[in-house]
């Protein structure tokens, strides 16, 4: 681009994998809605159906939106870094809000029906994932979106942020799989082993969750698909380092 050449375009295969991820994501949302609507009587807030808001919100927030937030830096490869950061944080924040609605739904439903809370492996993993996800979002905003840390501290934290971002995405999918199994065992334990339609549909949802996670994970781990830094970003990075650490750009 510095020699007057047009900016590079996104790799063709990257676009294909991102498109596949979105198709899988929309399909898993539709499958979740079909399961809840066809076999669990739908979703309503102040009613016995309030619990059903929980799986819908967790799949939408902690899987689909979280996955899309992770893909932002691959999809928007040549846009301004500040805008990309803001979109990344916005999607994660929206995922948090939707997941919080899902958590409130399950606690209120349990209280109404007299069901104990936080005793299952699903609830332990799910709550731990949500709390760590919030901390990850909060620290990410502090370090990168509204940076007040030094250049060296941001450089140290960035690999931790990337690792925990992928780890929390995996934990989110794992918690959903545990939740699907737990719900099936509670609702259709007597007929689940007979390959009833509800069990097959819910198992299909689990497979879609795994497939979505694998495609997103593949895109995130391809080194050649990482977002290349723009020339002005490199210059700003050096200026920030000079201001925060007193180093010369050439040093």
UniProtKB/TrEMBL annotation:
SMART domains: B561. GO terms for cellular component: chromaffin granule membrane; lysosomal membrane. Residues 20-221 form the Cytochrome b561 domain. It is found in: Cytoplasmic vesicle, Secretory vesicle, Chromaffin granule membrane. Its main location: membrane. It is a multi-pass membrane protein. One of its GO terms (molecular function) is metal ion binding. Its cofactor is heme b. It catalyses: monodehydro-L-ascorbate radical(out) + L-ascorbate(in) = monodehydro-L-ascorbate radical(in) + L-ascorbate(out). Keywords: Cytoplasmic vesicle, Electron transport, Heme, Iron, Membrane, Metal-binding, Translocase, Transmembrane, Transmembrane helix, Transport. The chain crosses the membrane at residues 14-36, 56-76, 88-107, 127-149, 161-180, 200-220. InterPro entries: CYB561/CYBRD1-like, Cyt_b561/ferric_Rdtase_TM. Transmembrane reductase that uses ascorbate as an electron donor in the cytoplasm and transfers electrons across membranes to reduce monodehydro-L-ascorbate radical in the lumen of secretory vesicles. It is therefore involved the regeneration and homeostasis within secretory vesicles of ascorbate which in turn provides reducing equivalents needed to support the activity of intravesicular enzymes. This is Transmembrane ascorbate-dependent reductase CYB561. It comes from Thryothorus ludovicianus. The lineage of its organism: Eukaryota, Metazoa, Chordata, Craniata, Vertebrata.
């Amino acid at each position: 681009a510095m020699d007057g050449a047009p900016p590079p375009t996104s790799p063709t295969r990257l676009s294909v994998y991102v498109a596949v991820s979105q198709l899988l994501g929309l399909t898993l949302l539709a499958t979740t809605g079909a399961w809840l609507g066809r076999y669990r009587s739908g979703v309503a807030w102040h009613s016995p159906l309030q619990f059903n808001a929980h799986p819908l919100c967790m799949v939408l927030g902690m899987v689909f939106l979280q996955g899309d937030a992770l893909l932002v830096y691959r999809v928007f490869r040549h846009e301004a870094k500040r805008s990309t950061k803001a979109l990344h944080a916005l999607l994660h924040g929206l995922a948090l809000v939707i997941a919080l609605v899902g958590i409130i739904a399950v606690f209120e439903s349990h209280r109404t029906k007299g069901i104990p809370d936080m005793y299952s492996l699903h609830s332990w993993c799910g709550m731990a994932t949500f709390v760590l996800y919030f901390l990850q979002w909060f620290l990410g905003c502090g370090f990168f979106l509204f940076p007040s840390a030094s250049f060296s501290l941001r450089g140290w934290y960035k690999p931790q942020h990337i690792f925990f971002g992928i780890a929390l995405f995996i934990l989110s999918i794992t918690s959903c799989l545990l939740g699907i199994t737990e719900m099936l065992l509670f609702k259709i334990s007597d007929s689940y082993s007979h390959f009833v339609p509800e069990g097959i549909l819910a198992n299909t949802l689990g497979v879609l969750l795994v497939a979505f996670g694998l495609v997103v994970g593949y895109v995130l781990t391809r080194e050649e698909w990482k977002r290349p830094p723009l020339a002005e970003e490199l210059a700003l990075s050096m200026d920030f380092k000079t201001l925060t650490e007193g180093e010369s750009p050439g040093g």
